[in-house]
Amino acid sequence: MKVYDLIGIGFGPSNIALAIALKENDPQRLKNVCFIEKQANFAWHNDMMLADAHMQISFLKDLVSLRNPKSHFSFVNYLHEHNRLADFINLKTFYPSRTEFNDYLSWAASHFQENTAYSEAVFEVIPQINNLNTVTHLLVRSRDNKGEITERLTKDIVISVGGSANIPDEFKAFKNDPRVIHSSNYLSEIKQDHVANNIAIVGAGQSAAELFMDLNKQHHQPNVDLIMRARAIKPSDDSPFVNEIFNADFTDFVFDKNQNEREKLLEEFWHTNYAAPDLEVIQNIFDVFYQQKVIGSERHRFLRRHEVTSVMTDENGVHIIVKNLNDNTTSQKTYDTVVLATGYQRQQHLQILAPLAKYLNDYTVDRSYCIKSNDNFEPKVFLQGSCEKSHGLSDTLLSIMSVRSHEIVTALAKTAELAD
Asked: Which end of the chain is more exposed for a tag (fewer CB within 10 A), N or C?
């Protein structure tokens, strides 16, 4: 069996950035690297490519620019190669549409077709042990759409599988009901139900806000209830000094703190990334409710300070009981569709790495995003996007991808030098 130097699990933005860093800094190693992606081709949040949706982050925080602004893979060069640079400049914005940025990422991914195996989902990583009881390599097992299993042997791995849908406890029993959908599947699932006239959105973040505005514009004019525990929709704080927490050097500041201090930092800045839509979208939502007052309409409801306490389903729809947190009264309403804009969990790596658990020290990572391991475990296991508690709020975002990829490539090079 061929032995790879490195296998990347997932081929989203983080591992694309890693592939680019390898190409620019260690091209020989790239020849012996494989990325395994469960999707049939590159796609980035395909089901949230809503009309008029724009990035919340500057295009300069692309796959490479903070590490190498001269790179072929910069967003600016992408525009140049597609003959749109002058036109983009005329837009006078730092924030491209989500559709365009997805196209940029797809363009970058297309450079690595030879290194990528699509339509395969990695489900476990098995330790390979020598006669000295030392783990020397890892066997990566993946399954394609037909159920066929492929095995690959590697020295090191980088896991970058993104988040999985966070389903609140009240809805878990109905996660396979087509009438209860998560925002990550919104466009695919909502198309299956063209007659949904009464819809609930549960959540208070950017996704919930964007989905509300999207449904408000639908031609069949569904009634939409926006349900959240918060008293008000709070805007994200993207002021310059606050935005410094997403700088690469702030990662050192967070990592060097003890766990208690890190938790305080995460709590202090939590609303920069969670449950905090853009102010422009919030203003648009307010305007929708204001115009309803002007014309005397009750098409949409804003159920603020409301909490879902129980859910039932039957042939008539999804029945939700909500508790008004102001006076503790409860009420019930029936919906054709419920959309959960309830965020993501970052736990998929635990399932994939379960066979290695006894060798890994509670999955804690060092500064270079490598999981700490026992002395008899030689492979390096890196995590991208699952280190928020140790590296800060920027870990799940695009902000530090380019710099993080360089740090991982540097760590891999040091490992190779030691091996030699």
From this structure: C
Q: Which two tokens stand for residue 386?
A: 């699952």
**Would you say the pTM of this structure is higher than 0.85?**
yes
Considering the domain architecture, whether residues 70 and 214 belong to the same structural domain is answered as no
325-366 per-position pLDDT tens digit: 999 999 999 999 999 999 999 999 999 999 999 999 889 999
Q: Among residues 287, 309, 340, which one ends one of the domains?
A: 340
Look at strands 317-324 and 330-335 and give their pairing.
antiparallel
Q: Are residues 179 and 222 in the same domain?
A: yes
Tracing tokens 């492979």 back to the chain, one arrives at 379
Grouping H, G, I as helix, E, B as strand and the rest as coil, residue 143 is strand
Q: Judge if 330 and 362 occupy the same domain.
A: no
Spell 172-184 as b/e; 16+ CB within 10 A means b. Answer: eebeeeebbbbbb
Domain that holds residue 154: 3-163+346-419
Residue-wise pLDDT for 102-128, tens only, equals: 999 999 999 999 999 999 999 999 999
The per-residue DSSP string of 105-138 comes to HHHHHGGGGGGEE-SEEEEEEEEEE-TTS-EEEE
**Both 192 and 285 in a single domain?**
yes
